[in-house]
Amino acid sequence: MSVVGAAVQADSAATAQDPRHAGRPAGDGDQDEAQRRQVPGLSGNRRPEGEGQAQARLCPWELAQELGVYMLSFDRPGYAESDPHPARTEESIALDIAELADNLQLGRKFYLAGFSMGGEIMWSCLKYIPHRLSGVAILGPVGNYWWPGLPSNVSRDAWYQQLPRDQWAVWVAHHLPWLTYWWNTQKLFPASSVIAYNPALLSQEDEMLMAKFGYRAYMPQIRQQGEHECLHRDMMVGFGKWSWSPLQLENPFADADADDGQGAGKVHLWHGAEDLIVPVSLSRYISQKLPWVVYHELPKSGHLFPIAEGMADIIVKSLLLGDDHLSSSASQPPHSP
């Protein structure tokens, strides 16, 4: 997850109340200038130093300087240096974000941006800490096929867009969560192709982007506590039995002050139409049912669109300044079907 906000000492670690230890935050941007505008976001872990770091940034240094923001990323529970949280739920991670923001003195409100599984977590933040948010960008979010209120035909359509092996892996995570580790490590049946980085899940654009994004040398650092404490628990929570769904959320910015800024008080939902990892149909349906969500569908993009050339600028400027500030020359401008 990434948090953009006030000044942070990047070499210090944060401690959760319960008391878990969170990996040292890492950030980009001018920390003093960031006092004016605070922006948090999400991803599995903070970015390590080294080759390829700049390419994976949601908010490049130049853009952070231009907008006067500071982006911070941290290790979610079980990833890299953050302690595992065996009892974590879809609510606990949202409370972790709020507590981290308080520990780092990011201020009363901040922005969030979450990608993939982090995108699903954004719905939890809108549910449990809406009073702390200035705006949210949800990028290619994972969806739960058992969310309450989700029509069976919509869920079924999205379900069968998965590979059969992934249908089984997700089914086990939902119905038999205690069996998730075994299912994804046994050799009798094919396990999750997402965890295995199956190239069959890459769209044409994703294949081109993979050279820039994929095969990261620091992957062992991310999963150093074992796949069960990070990836498997992500599945158990993300595809678990929720008592609510995004369809039941109300606009958290309906009564936002006009002085918050032109780009503030918006929820932006982005999805690639050719996403073979996370079916776009769930995002389409949710956006139709929640008119306060600003939906951007990229017709030629797959799952990795956030790291496509120029997309970081488009996403962040849309979140902070509003869509009117987007350049008309963008290679893949937002498109709503």
Features:
disordered C terminus, AB hydrolase-1 domain-containing protein, single chain, 4-stranded parallel sheet, 4-stranded antiparallel sheet, alpha/beta, Rossmann fold, AB_hydrolase_fold, globular, AB_hydrolase_1
CATH architecture: 3-Layer(aba) Sandwich
Cα separation of the termini: 29 Å
CATH topology call: Rossmann fold
Beta-sheet strand percentage?
A: 5-15%
Helix content: 25-40%
The structural domain count equals 1
Number of helices: 11
Shape estimate = globular
CATH level-four homologous superfamily name: Alpha/Beta hydrolase fold, catalytic domain
Main sheet: strands, sense, barrel: 4 strands, antiparallel
Widest beta sheet: strand line-up: 4-6-1-5
SSE arrangement, N to C: EEEEEHEHEHEHHHHHHEHEH
Number of DSSP E strands: 10
Secondary-structure-based class equals: alpha/beta
Q: What is the CATH C level class, in words?
A: Alpha Beta
Uncertain spans, ≥5 residues at pLDDT below 50?
A: 1-13, 31-43, 47-56, 257-263, 328-337
Account of the protein in words:
- The chain has 337 residues and is an alpha/beta fold.
- The protein has a single domain (2-325), classed as Alpha/Beta hydrolase fold, catalytic domain (Rossmann fold), CATH 3.40.50.1820.
- It has helices at residues 61-67, 92-103, 117-128, 152-159, 164-175, 180-185, 204-213, 219-222, 228-238, 280-289, 311-321, and strands spanning 2-4, 14-15, 21-22, 26-29, 39-40, 70-73, 110-115, 133-139, 267-272, 293-298.
- Strands 4-6-1-5 form a 4-stranded antiparallel sheet. A 4-stranded parallel sheet has the order 7-8-9-10, with helices on both faces.
- The radius of gyration is 19 Å and the shape is globular.
